[in-house]
Structure formats: C-alpha cells, structure tokens
Design goal:
Length: 270
DNA sequence: TACTCTGTTGAATA
DNA sequence: TTATTCAACAGAGT
C-alpha cells in the first residue's frame, strides 16, 4: 500500500511499544525480506532492547532501540505494521515479530518487496544518514528541482516524481495527484518545463505531501474530496475539475491516470 | 487462466 | 560515463 502518509500511519501503530523492552523475537530469517541483513544478529541484539523512538523519511522507517540498535523497515508494496496481543501466534506473512510484555509488534509483508535493515552502533547507519531532503523540508527548494530537471532532461516527468532520490515518499498515486494539481501532462520531459511550471511542480508536491500527512498519515481518513486520487481507479473515473473521462497509460512502467483536458500535452500558447 | 496492483533493484540498453 | 527502461521479485485479488 504505502506511500509517505501511509508509512507514517503505520509507524505510529507501533507507538504503544515505546519505552518497553523486547522480551522475545520471532522472525522468518530465510525470507527475501531480510536480504542484505543478518537475521541472527537482529535477534541477538534486539532481544532485551527497549524501543526508544521512531521516525519516517519518505517510505523509510527507522526504529531506535537501546543497546545501540537501529531497525530500518521498508513496506514495499504490501507491507504493514500492526500490534497484536502478547500471546499471539505469527502467521505466514508475519516475518518479524517483537514480543513485549503487553503486546507484540508485527511487521507483515505478503509479497516481500519490503525490506528489513539493521545496524548496531553508536551513530546512525549510512542508509539513514544519506537520505535526500524531504519534500516538505526547507531544503527541498525550487533551485534543487531545477538542477535535477536539467540533469535528467529526457525522463518523463512522471518518472522523476517516482524517483526516491528526488521526491522521497512519493509513489504512484501521489505522482498522479501532483501532476493533476500542477496541470501537467505526465509524459512531458523535465526539459520542457519553464521556471513557472517547475515552481508549480514544487508547490503541488509540497501541498500533496503535507495534506496527505495530515489526513491519511494521522488516521487513514480521506484527503479532500476533489482530489484526483478518489477518482483514479474507478472504472470510468472522471476529472474532479471538469468531469472529463480520465486517460490511462503505462508511463515509466506504472499505470498512470490523467485528465487530457486540463493536463494538455501541448505547451500553453497564451 | 490471465491479468491487475500505492515498489525497488540490477542488468541491459541507449 | 551516465541516464533510462525493463524484467524480476511473490502473492492475493479479480
């Protein structure tokens, strides 16, 4: 499911475990979800560690524990976090379960496109420290976007919106929403954008991320009713602005929906 | 049966 | 050298 707001929502689900010690761990260490990490080390280090804090950055989550343990989770396409009673029996897709006194913190992922990362040390791991500026941060500037758009001039705009080193946390539906809010065709290349259009992408990206975090990110409630995302996957979905039938195509390898009327492929002439 | 899917990666290609 | 596309990953739902 998850893009940045959903990731934030799932992170908070584990909040009831803050300040509590992990007594026991159950994990499916042979699963692909542990690629690149050492399940035995995770088990050894997290056992007896106390969950201190958590944060998200784009689609990445970081859980900090005592004993200098850092647990990174990525939800991939189907990952979920939830809380179960302490005596819970892990199911087939519950690949990492942290048992605490009163409850169990569960990371489940059916398709296993997600990932578990782990670091044992005083300072933050490289995979966390080197993340790009968040879309909602002051470091996410129009100047930065301009520079990237000039460098990656042939990629369709949709592809750039999906690039996690440019728009961390933006996924398929958010990319379509941003393009619709900015009234830009997903197929145009970044090189075709003038300064004003670049600023529109910047503005729309920040707005969509901010509002999504305040709605979906808090309680899974819907974003404003006039957003494209509420129409997007409906059969015969229509543009919330002008009621025109949405167009669909695969762009940058992902299904894309847009309004052919208010996101025209040609440059505006006046 | 055959197609879809809110994601990322590494190999192939340009 | 650098950017981009594509298949692969794996399961559940339609």
């Amino acid at each position: 499911m998850p893009e940045l707001a959903e990731v934030e929502y799932f992170r908070k689900r584990w909040d009831s475990g803050l300040g509590q010690r992990v007594r026991e761990i159950a994990l499916h260490g042979e699963k692909r979800i542990f690629r690149g990490s050492d399940p035995a080390e995770i088990e050894r280090t997290l056992r007896g560690a106390t969950l201190r804090s958590s944060e998200t950055h784009g689609k990445q989550m970081l859980f900090r524990f005592s004993k200098n343990a850092w647990l990174g989770l990525h939800l991939g396409m189907t990952g979920k976090l939830r809380v179960e009673p302490a005596g819970f029996e892990p199911g087939r897709h519950d690949h990492l379960v942290l048992f605490q006194r009163k409850q169990a913190l569960v990371f489940a992922d059916a398709r296993m496109f997600g990932r578990v990362r782990f670091h044992h040390g005083k300072s933050a791991p490289a995979w966390w420290a080197k993340l790009p500026p968040a879309v909602t941060s002051p470091q996410f500037t129009t100047a930065r976007l301009r520079e990237i758009f000039l460098r990656r001039r042939t990629a369709p705009l949709k592809a750039l919106l999906l690039a996690q080193d440019v728009f961390p946390g933006v996924g398929n539906w958010m990319a379509d929403e941003i393009l619709w809010q900015a009234r830009l065709d997903p197929r145009i290349s970044a090189a075709q954008l003038d300064a004003k259009q670049t600023r529109e992408v910047w503005r729309a990206a920040r707005m969509v991320c901010r509002v999504a975090l305040k709605t979906i990110g808090v309680d899974w409630s819907d974003p404003p009713g006039d957003w494209l995302m509420l129409q997007r996957w409906k059969k015969g979905g229509r543009c919330p602005r002008d009621g025109k039938l949405l167009q669909r195509a695969t762009i940058a390898g992902r299904t894309t929906a847009w309004c052919p009327n208010c996101q025209p492929s040609h440059r505006k002439t006046g």
